[in-house]
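Lecture notes, part 5. Sequence design as translation. It can be helpful to think of inverse folding as translation between two languages: the language of shapes and the language of residues. The source text, in structure tokens, appears below.
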């Protein structure tokens, strides 16, 4: 199994039948009767525990990889067409933190869209960076924030020449892509580093039906780092991710390895590492290409079925402009839907409780569902049937909504008034907890997030404004930590 060197090393170790006098304490077997019973119910087999190993002889060391981990990472880098790939067992969050530490100096200014994931805020605290916030594109037909326009990035560079880098979320949680090529050109022209949070884009390099991946940018305008969560779309285990340094990256591979070593555990899970090894091999296989073709056909069929439901609208690539190279501006394996008379929360909750369709996330305007390569024909049919049912339900209930399918004018995010850097706010000596209504005009000491999708509503160091009340709740039941001045 030359295409999965890490998994091969684990299997070889398993055949040695050695007596374990090392961590982990379970020694490859369930601990005690109670744990054993729970393990059986949860599906934890002895075979699984047998490969829950540590950094033993022959299994390499994640912090200084020279054996099977190094081979596996090099294979993944080759498959993605990048210079280096590093495995993260702390998710894309940990990978992004490492990229910020490796890319910038304390007090550097970085341009960030307001709909960035909360992990970026933690990275700002760790690296001591100063955010320059910009507003992403608002899609009023759907009530969604999209990517950042190149014009917004260029204007930010003019207004704040001190900006040292840009962090882009591509795609967004709902699958909306950014004009990466144009932004990458701007970053190269102005000598700014570009880090791409591509957590939901691990599949993009493998088929032209997907948006462009930052890994595919030409070397002369390459991103400096691309972080992906294959567990979200590619089949690896939760909490596993990889960090790519494309060819042309200005980030030193040695520096990034050092940053990862500062952040990651010295006892990495080989189950997570092995799942990355397997996911990488599967994505590069003929089997995966066949699976993509079948998946796209099923999705197209489901689209046609949903188009026959009058009260439902499905976000598709035809609703968005085509980006550079003719690649779509939407990952259509994601289904974001609005209903004419039901809120997104009501629609999602009804379909889950009454039809057994679990959703990924929902908001007042719509709900998000993710298709998987594990879904079969029956799953897609149940999905279509569920939305036919919700149409009939809404008719029977005679539900009404003030603005069915009208433009969503409300801007959900307030552009922050930054008083203190996130790091200075985090380390501020005195804070107090107050009711939200009493916090107006005060400086936040914490990050408040609605997850999913994990986009912060309130940031440390940001002045609390009246618009936050509608986002966080008007009543005193919502409290917030503020800085004592």
């Amino acid at each position: 199994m030359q295409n999965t060197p890490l998994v091969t090393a684990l299997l070889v170790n398993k055949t040695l039948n050695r007596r374990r006098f090392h961590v982990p304490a379970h020694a490859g077997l369930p601990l005690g009767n109670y744990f054993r019973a729970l393990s059986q119910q949860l599906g934890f087999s002895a075979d699984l525990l047998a490969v829950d190993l540590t950094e033993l002889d022959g299994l390499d060391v994640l912090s200084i990889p020279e054996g099977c981990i190094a081979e596996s990472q090099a294979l993944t880098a080759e498959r993605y067409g990048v210079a280096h790939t590093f495995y993260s067992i702390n998710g894309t969050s940990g990978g992004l933190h490492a990229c910020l530490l490796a890319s910038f100096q304390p007090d550097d200014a970085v341009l960030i869209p307001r709909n960035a994931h909360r992990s970026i805020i933690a990275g700002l605290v760790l690296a001591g960076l100063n955010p320059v916030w910009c507003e992403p594109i608002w899609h009023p037909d759907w009530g969604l924030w999209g990517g950042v326009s190149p014009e917004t990035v260029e204007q930010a560079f003019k207004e704040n020449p001190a900006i040292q880098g840009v962090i882009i979320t591509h795609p967004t949680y709902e699958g909306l892509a950014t004009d990466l090529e144009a932004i990458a050109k701007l970053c190269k022209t102005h000598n700014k580093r570009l880090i791409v949070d591509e957590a939901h884009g691990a599949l993009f390099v493998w088929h032209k039906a997907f948006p462009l991946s930052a890994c595919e940018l030409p070397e002369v305008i390459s991103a400096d780092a691309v972080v992906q969560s294959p567990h979200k779309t590619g089949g690896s285990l939760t909490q596993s991710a990889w960090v790519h340094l494309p060819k042309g990256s200005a980030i030193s591979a040695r520096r990034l390895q050092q940053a990862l070593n500062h952040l990651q555990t010295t006892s990495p899970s080989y189950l997570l590492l092995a799942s990355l090894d397997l996911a990488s091999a599967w994505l590069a296989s003929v089997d995966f290409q066949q699976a993509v073709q079948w998946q796209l056909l099923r999705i197209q069929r489901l689209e046609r079925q949903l188009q026959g439901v009058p009260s439902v609208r499905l976000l598709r690539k035809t609703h968005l402009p085509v980006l550079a190279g003719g690649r779509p501006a939407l990952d259509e394996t994601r289904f974001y839907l609005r209903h004419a008379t039901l809120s997104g929360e009501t629609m999602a909750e009804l379909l889950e409780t009454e039809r057994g369709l679990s959703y990924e996330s929902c908001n007042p305007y719509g709900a998000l569902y993710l298709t998987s390569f594990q879904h079969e024909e029956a799953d897609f049919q149940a999905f279509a049937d569920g939305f036919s049912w919700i149409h009939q339900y809404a008719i029977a209930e005679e539900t009404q909504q003030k603005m069915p399918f009208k433009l969503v004018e409300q801007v959900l995010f307030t552009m922050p008034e930054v008083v203190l850097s996130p790091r200075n706010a985090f380390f501020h000596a005195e804070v107090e907890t107050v009711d939200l209504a009493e916090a107006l005009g005060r400086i936040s000491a914490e990050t408040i997030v609605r997850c999913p999708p994990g986009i912060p509503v309130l940031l440390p160091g940001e002045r609390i404004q009246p618009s936050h009340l509608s986002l966080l709740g008007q009543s005193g039941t919502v409290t917030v930590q503020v800085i004592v001045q």
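The translated text above is only one of many valid answers, since several sequences can fold into similar shapes. The longest helix spans residues 286-307.
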